[in-house]
Amino acid sequence: MTNSRISGFYNLTIEERRAKLAEAAHLTPEDLLPFTTGGLSAESADHMVENVIGMYSLPVGIGLNFMVNGRDVLVPFVIEEPSVVAGASFMAKLVRAGGGFTATTTEPLMIGQMQLINLVNVEEARLKIYEHKAELLAIADAIDPILKKFGGGARDLEVRVIEDSAIGAFLVIHLIYDVRDAMGANAVNTACEKLAPRIEAITGGKVHLKILSNLADRRIARVRCTIPVSELGFEAENHSQVSGETVRDGIIAAWAFADSDPYRAATHNKGIMNGVDSVVIATGNDWRAIEAGAHAYAARSGRYTSLSTWGKDKDGNLVGTLEMPMAVGIVGGATKVHPAAQAAVKLMNVKTASELAEIIVSVGLAQNMAALRALATEGIQRGHMSLHARQVAIAAGASGEMIEKVAAQMVTEKVVRIDRAEEILKELKESK
Ligand code: MEV
What we know:
The protein is built from 17 helices and 12 strands. The model has no long low-confidence stretch (mean pLDDT 95). Strands 3-8-12-11 form a 4-stranded antiparallel β-sheet. Strands 5-6-4-7 form a 4-stranded antiparallel β-sheet, covered by helices on one side. A two-stranded antiparallel sheet has the order 1-2. Helix content is 49%, strand content 20%. By secondary structure, it is α+β, with helices and mostly antiparallel strands. The chain has helices at 14-25, 33-37, 42-48, 84-97, 122-131, 133-141, 145-149, 185-203, 244-260, 262-282, 287-298, 333-337, 339-348, 353-376, 380-395, 401-413, 418-430; strands at residues 60-68, 71-78, 102-105, 109-117, 153-164, 168-178, 206-212, 220-227, 234-235, 241-242, 308-312, 318-325. The chain binds (R)-mevalonate. (R)-mevalonate (MEV) binds at residues 81, 267-268, 270-271, 274, 371-372, 375, 380.
């Protein structure tokens, strides 16, 4: 069993962290090798996209302390932004004290859309499609024998009438497809393209677009956590004590802002996506699809709002929830081709796409809480400051031990700017 609590991880060297990680996750150093090399060869990359000229790297940091559905998990984050990994790990530690994250998923149902135009009578066509539903589902079901073998396949057909001022009435047919452990785009798009000629023959119309919907609202991941209010208090920079109740109520009031204001909700949800995307990218999944689904889902009531909720339970403990579409896979696509994505899946020891989705929403909720806690108490800049200062120091030309020196000086002065970094660097070099 993995142990996701590795004390002092932050203070180790990169080499030492790799060794600790392998030990804690019961993996060999070879299993983690793709994180050392970046994983992808130029040759594989050349098969992935067009006009390849090379590679582009991002840091992989490990999210600690995560316990999801009673199981410890070490989570790889691929992200360029400071504070995300540390913030989520810290919140996961607090959540652990309340029993960890409890997550569930729906069946992995994706929606394929077919736009049916040029109809003489949309209602007649709509009913004709329902009359042929069994036959159409059988055609769609047969496109992927492997998926079928693992229990996936076509599940349902739904037909909607859309009235459009530009082109008049048309039909939208939704094919509901169980894609099991795949992300599902290929299977669904293939099935829609296969169905089109038969639908045209049945209705006399023309199937125009045939493509999956990223508003994957049949494939939802949900997560809940409770943080004992006693865990939330802390000592502020000026040594005053901030009570757990103050932090809890601050987080709830911060959430209420996002709940009622789209301008704030966009930023609030961006914080959730800091966590979500980090794991989606680490596992070679399509983060644009996840982003599109998340924001469309956040606007499903007609008004864009928060994807998460924060409140308290009967004992006054802080309770957080997150619910969002989660179309991720562990088979096929980049997940299968990219050695680092494979290593990420192995590190988390996930065997199904649902398990991966449950970890991802847990990370999203942890990251949301980290942002709200910081914003509701000491402000976001304090936590950001030291890592940000290092980046600014590097940008100003610092290298080696100078990075820390320049960064530390800027943090002390509370001035983290490239011009100041350049000045400090110059002073330090001159005083040598
Ligand atoms: C920054 O990447 C994310 C935050 O803006 C999220 C939030 O405001 O909730 C800190």
